[in-house]
Design a protein that fits this description.
9-stranded mixed sheet, TIM Barrel
């Protein structure tokens, strides 16, 4: 699987992955249905209250989403520590991508390999204060590299523009080393920065509050997509 991630885009310029962290937690199924025609993936942030100062979701949610939306592409981001303690239980629920934090384990190579061995596409995430160089030695193992453009733990934060430099760096690294991982950006994504990010090389945009806290989730998602496509 690794090295051929480009086929996940299905010929699209970019993919939109709404984050349900900012959706109405009492009506997640209905919230997903509202944006179903506008999304490409659904993004699930798992937080342990230790690696980040917040708690959210267990593996059972993946099972519920898979049951309610059998064809949904499920993108899971583990913000937990240590990663290896959680990978197995989430892998059992068969997400399409399982992303772990570069900072959350001393054994990132082993963790990524365990995800691959489970038949799931592995991803690696880096915090705003973490340089790309920390992950360079394992990027060949990743199907996805997630750049966090806010400090993780809570939704509705402002985009940190300095983090965008990592996007350019990863685009160059991928080209030089002929790698196939997708680049995902999460944090403060809105219609006013989506176009810049996609034109710079972002493959997957994760947006939460801009979609689910704007009144009409489908319209908000459509506006982000239009902006990202240069509209």
């Amino acid at each position: 699987m690794t090295g051929t991630s480009g086929d996940l885009k299905g010929g699209k310029k970019f993919l939109l992955a709404p984050s349900i962290l900012d959706a109405d937690q009492l009506s997640l199924g209905e919230e997903i249905r509202k944006v179903k025609n506008e999304l490409d993936w659904v993004h699930i942030d798992v937080m342990d209250g230790h690696f980040v100062p917040n708690l959210s979701y267990g593996p059972g949610l993946i099972s519920s989403i898979r049951s309610g939306f059998p064809d949904m592409f499920i993108d899971v981001h583990l913000m937990v520590e240590p990663s290896e303690r959680f990978v197995g239980m989430f892998a059992e629920e068969r997400p399409d991508i399982l992303t772990v934090q570069a900072e959350a384990t001393n054994h990132i190579h082993r963790v990524l390999q365990s995800i691959k061995d489970a038949g799931i596409r592995p991803g690696i995430a880096i915090n705003p204060g973490t340089p790309v160089s920390v992950a360079e030695t394992v990027l060949h193992m990743a199907d996805l590299v997630l750049i966090l453009t806010v400090n993780p733990g809570f939704g509705a934060q402002k985009f940190l523009p300095e983090a965008a430099a990592k996007l350019k760096e990863l685009v160059r690294f991928r080209a030089v080393h002929s790698l196939g991982f997708l680049i995902e950006v999460d944090g403060g994504i809105r219609a006013d920065n989506a176009g810049f990010l996609v034109s710079t090389g972002c493959d997957v945009l994760v947006a939460g509050s801009a979609i689910f806290r704007g009144g009409d989730p489908a319209l908000a998602a459509a506006e982000i997509r239009k902006s990202a496509l240069g509209g």
